[in-house]
Amino acid sequence: MTIKNDLLRVIFIASLVVSIVAIKTTLGADPIYVEAEAVEFESASYTYTPSPFKVRQAKKLGVPVEIKTEPSVSLNGYLAKPVGEEPRAAIVLLHTCNGLSEHEEMWSKRLVDWGYVVLSVDPFTPRGLDYICDGRIGHYVGPWARALDAYGAKQYLSTHSFVDPARIAVMGMSHGGNTVLETIKQSISEGLAVKPFQAAIAFYPHCGKPESINTPTLILTGDKDSWTPVELCEEFVGNFDSQNEIKLKVFAGAYHAFDHPGIDIVELGYIVRSNPEAAAEASQITHGFLEEWL
Predict the structure, then answer these.
(1) Domain housing 177
(2) For labelling alongside 68, which of 40, 106, 112, 161 has CA 20 to 30 A away?
(3) Residue 187 belongs to a domain with what CATH number?
């Protein structure tokens, strides 16, 4: 019986390893980026000073005043651009919780074909991470920190003569989409004392509570997505009070990562499945939104 149990245990562990490898191979394979330049830059550093109201509330409740601090981090990225040195609009591209993959490379090439400079940000490698979907303590970086990465990428792009610093957008998928919704908060750009992004696009993000934003925003998601439920984004947009435009496009029959070609897996209990029709329409909508705002 002991030998049999040991054998079953070995088989189970082996199958689990195979499953994890399969998921990481599908979602997070090392990008080729043969047409892009590997670059290094710094994230933005940030110190959050609580408002007088929050100070009074903390004293009233007898709790410490929350002060957020985040030092700058040395980051990696892949810079891709069309031919020519004339100033162009640019996109900061933020990947999913699986890290940089052929998915982001596909979008990078597409955006370059549309005439944009693209910086695909790698926030994981410098932090010793490669996968954060399971949210393990000590093995995670949140949207707030990644928003600072995005602003560091924006600053880096602004130093190049072939980028028009007044026309830089941010775009992300899944956890990268969560980061986009963090990045557009007015409190972030004002806290950093920098100009906000000119436009923002979030693919299937987890939509939280609405907060004042300062960037025209497009959210694209599917009605079959159980990982980042569409209902949260509908509530997010429906309750929004902002002078900036915010659009929500919901694709019928589309699951999480509907724009990732060929993918069809279950990760952490959630269906992750490509939908070519939704992906094609999302690409057209994205192109039009960028042309409108950049």
Answers:
(1) 2-293
(2) 40
(3) 3.40.50.1820
